[in-house]
Design a protein that fits this description.
Number of helices: 6
Distance between the termini: 11 Å
Oligomer: single chain
Largest sheet: none
Number of domains: 1
Amino acid sequence: MRTHQHLDARSLALHREIAAKLRRDRALFARARATLRRWRSTVSPASQPYLMEWERLMDRGLEATLAVALDDSEHAAALRQSSPFTAVLTPRERFAFLKAWNQSQGSA
């Protein structure tokens, strides 16, 4: 059974993968900013505070943004639920991550 803690741990691990890729290819940070701009005009009002916070973080630069994205706090976990970094990994990279994660957690 997947608990909220399990999902938060998986999201944090996924964001560690994303951070590594962003550090290798900083141009992907611009892609995440474009995703954020698009979402800001289309998502529900309930998500806007999280997106506004991501925008403020991104205005401070990559490392400041990643410091929060990789934090193990409840607040960072809540932010990751509205992460604009979803398109940084390719579908193949995301699948490989999820497969490895599920194997490491003993689930199929």
